[in-house]
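Entry for nickel (II) ion complex. Fields follow.
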Amino acid sequence: MTVLPIVTVGDPVLRERAREVTPEELRSPRTQQLIGDMIDTMRAAGGAGIAANQVGELLRIFVVEVRDNPRYPYKPNVPLTVAVNPRIEPLDPETAAINEGCLSVPDLRGEVDRRIRIRVTRLDRDGAEHVEERHGLTAGTFQHELDHLDGVLFLDRVRDPRTFTTWEQFERHHRDAFVARITEFVERVGS
Ligand code: NI
């Protein structure tokens, strides 16, 4: 397993649509190695998720995992999830403003509206299909990763550019209010 370099905003690979993975491709040692490397890279960088575009591969694969993440201490834990050819359907129109960051956008956070109840359909790394509901911040994480596969960054979805902050200024000026609001929200909608 290998920790891969993460590409940053400005690299055209982050703006391209990743393509579907075929069953043969998913079984191949190369793709299985890529998935393992993406897991290692996400963990080494302390991210909540990473998409294939972020390591320079245009395949529809992302991984998500939250285990008491110090980068996002308010996020509920999410078991390691590998999503191949994922689809997301919103279950209702309700959205919430969520403060997001991204491993490909160093030192910037901003507020994005995300659906808070979604159905995720995905293949796992063995090609088995799973259909799951995800709620709240976890739903937001899945939408953020799926966006990557469509060449979309959270930057594109920030409605009010005045919500952009560095991580340091977020900690200093915005964290307490956000965490108070989001803690109540996580208790209400779950994950
Ligand atoms: Ni990201």
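NOTE: The CA atoms of residues 74 and 183 lie 7 Å apart.
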